[in-house]
Automatic annotation (TrEMBL):
InterPro entries linked to this entry: Nudix_hydrolase, NUDIX_hydrolase-like_dom_sf, NUDIX_hydrolase_CS, NUDIX_hydrolase_dom
Domain Nudix hydrolase residues, every copy: 1-138
Gene Ontology MF annotations: hydrolase activity
UniProt family annotation: Belongs to the Nudix hydrolase family.
Name of the protein in its database record: NUDIX hydrolase
Cofactor(s) listed: Mg(2+)
Keyword annotations: Hydrolase
Species: Microlunatus elymi
Signal peptide (residue range): none
Pfam families xrefs: NUDIX (PF00293)
Highest taxon of the lineage: Bacteria
């Protein structure tokens, strides 16, 4: 399971520019986040990942913003990504000091939402990038939903979008 943080400031959203894990594929712009560690709760994982990748202090992890689940060829289990609304300490401002143990983070910055849509798709369409861009197209204020994908059937669009409320 992978979690991410949706951090807004006015008409911007926080993205991180990162190398892909294992160096396979182009660098990508994503929401700050990553995999849960063994025994870790969702909110603790979101807090840890945001703080590692941005250096910002998380005040609270709030409601679910959106998610995606997909089956990939050759995998027995689906990959589930959940993005939560996060509040960070405003004193942190724009002083990003990543402390990423995986050393994947190139930079973190607040990006206008209209520009963020293009940035997250820059490295190609994946379930994560498509779900994030769809969420951003709805101005980041849509009711939470989870996009469901089966990459054995199609890689360009999800099979469905399921509302959570």
């Amino acid at each position: 399971m992978v979690v991410g943080g949706v951090i807004r400031r006015d008409d911007t959203i926080l993205l991180v520019h990162e190398h892909t894990l294992g160096g396979e594929g182009p660098d990508q712009w994503v929401l700050p986040g990553g995999r849960l560690e063994r025994g870790e709760l969702l909110d603790a994982a979101v807090k840890r990942e945001v703080e590692e990748e941005t250096g910002l202090t998380v005040i609270s992890v709030g409601s679910l913003a959106f998610g995606s689940q997909h089956y990939a060829p050759g995998r027995d289990q689906p990959l589930l990504f959940l993005a939560f609304n996060v509040v960070v300490d405003p004193v942190s401002g724009d002083r990003f000091e990543p402390n990423d143990p995986d050393d994947l983070i190139i930079e973190a910055r607040f990006v206008p939402i209209r520009d963020a849509i293009d940035l997250v798709l820059q490295a190609g369409v994946t379930p994560g990038s498509q779900s994030t861009s769809d969420f951003l197209r709805q101005d980041g204020n849509a009711d939470p939903s989870i996009w469901l994908w089966d990459l054995n059937q199609s890689t360009d669009r999800p099979l469905s979008q399921v509302p959570i409320r």
